[in-house]
User: What shape does this take?
Amino acid sequence: MTVQLGSRLRDTRGRMLRDLRISVTDRCNFRCVYCMPKEIFGRDYDFMPHAMLLSFEEIVRVARAGIAHGVHKLRLTGGEPLLRREIETLVAMLAELRTPEGQPLDIALTTNGSALAHKARALRDAGLNRVTVSLDSLDEATFRAMNDIDFPLQRVLDGIRVAQDVGFDAIKINTVVKRGVNDDDVLAIAEHFRGTPVTVRFIEFMDVGTTNGWNLDQVVPSAEIIERISAVHPLEPLRPAYRGETANRWRYVDGAGEVGAISSVTEPFCGSCTRARISADGKLFTCLFASRGHDLRALLRDGCTDAELEAALAGIWNARDDRYSELRTADTPTERIEMSYIGG
Assistant: This one.
């Protein structure tokens, strides 16, 4: 198939490429039980040496290739992206990019919040638009148990407060809900941020990777989560803000804000997925549940032109047929890339 460079891409199911999620490191200082369990990612775990990571300049080139084909949202992930030295410099470099129509990009970052109080001002000044903080409990003991390094809750809450003070366009909270672990905290988290500009999104425990001990019995369906909240603070559904939005959204009937739910297990949204992911070492993945990626770092370091990089990206996306969450059967891959490697 001949691909016109700079054209909008559509995969085999007609889905366009709109969002690029870029992991900047595979390292994290937390050992969350659903992502980087300590039994696997222990003290002797062999993380990538710095030379294997995409440089900031290489990340910008990949972003530019995506933008040429319609990407207008960039999200920096990890591991924990705030562990990448001078991450604000990368944000500033990406903030200089423009869409073919001359519009600035929507640049977001997902963090565990451990260093957010220290970094929020520099990130905002560099051009970061939005920040999402992973926060799985407001109970001190549960929070420390889930991050599994005994990290104190208040330091993350301080980071969220500073993020509000510096004026990000949007702040979201991601809460992964596991039955019997933190599902009793759902209402407390919703109430803590109710009446504030901060939006909470509850995420069903997903079978990303193969090391997090996923079990369907530990999945709390989003419908149950919303019912629990609405029984105390009535909710009404909202229409999606854009095609391909991952979260179903509800607003409080009394006007005190909104909550969202990401239902990858019980209500798959593969049919509208517009996201591609770049691992820290430069592999392109077209699905969160993929078993392999496409090596863009090799192309970059072999001296490819921007046009060749755009063509490679187009060829990969045009062949994409992923729909893991719609299938989720015994026939789907049992070896999947870990969340900490691919980014969320």
Residues 19-342 form a domain with the TIM Barrel fold (CATH 3.20.20.70).
